Target: DNA replication terminus site-binding protein
Amino acid sequence: MFTPAARLRHTFCELESAMAALSGLITQAADAVPVNACCFPLPDVASGNEHEPVTQIEVSRLDDAAAITAALDGYRQWYIRPGCSTKASFRLPGYLVLPTALKPELQALTEDINRLKGEFRAQVQEAEGRDKKFALVHDTLPGLITLQVYRHLVLLPHSVSRLGFTWANKQIIQKIDKDKLVKQLSDARLSPPPLTDAETWIQCVDREIYDVKRLPPGVELRLRRPVKTHPMVNVRWSEELTPRQQQVKAHLPLLLCQDELPAVTALGNYPPSTTRKRRAARITDEPLIPRLHIYPYRPES
Model:
């Protein structure tokens, strides 16, 4: 019977084998016909700088053979890199346009790779508690960054007429039910975080529960959590689909199988020279529970 570490190592070896097959397929295709490819490498985040506010990102560009090499390396960028933060994950926006004839084989390979990524993640999650998960991964595969292994490859399912790369710098806003929040806080009272005094923790949570319960009836709650600046791509389908356009995370180069090249808006530096004006927020700037990013919200009458 396999130990958890042996199972994890076996799945990882299968994943590496599938990735090698994908690299071989793309390399062989590029040797046979010109493959349109482009990547937009982002600067590395130095260790210790991952929590610094993002005010500027300089984007470079690779095309054709250099982009293919970067993409194939980026798909397998799974380990800690010297001097780079392990908390600011590696991203490589871009795309590879491969011949339509390769789609059946490419689709089978990407589905197999994503299945193995899912199995790997499930095996890690079977370990109980954060410390055991960490030990399982890093004793088995030292230096591995699990988030970068978990990320699925994206093979776009339809022919594309346009790829528009851009930056996302938004917030997650979600309605919070007061009664459910009170229950969540009550359940958390007896589970203080590591290195936190139990009595101090209970007092803190009790105060949060009191603050929620004393809200006037007309005030609702919202989760408003900032999301780190990250690249996205707006995909416009060639076919008459609904919706005609879809937004996709651009963590890794997208795979396209089509003979007609899409129009492309390249990823520019951050911040963009022009930004769209957003509607003024109706959520107060003072959080009710700062550690959970919970804010009062009064609906417009």
Summary: The domain at 4-158+249-261 is CATH 3.50.14.10 (Replication Terminator Protein (Tus); Chain A, domain 1). The chain has seven helices and eleven strands. The longest strand covers residues 160-168. The two ends are 63 Å apart (CA to CA).
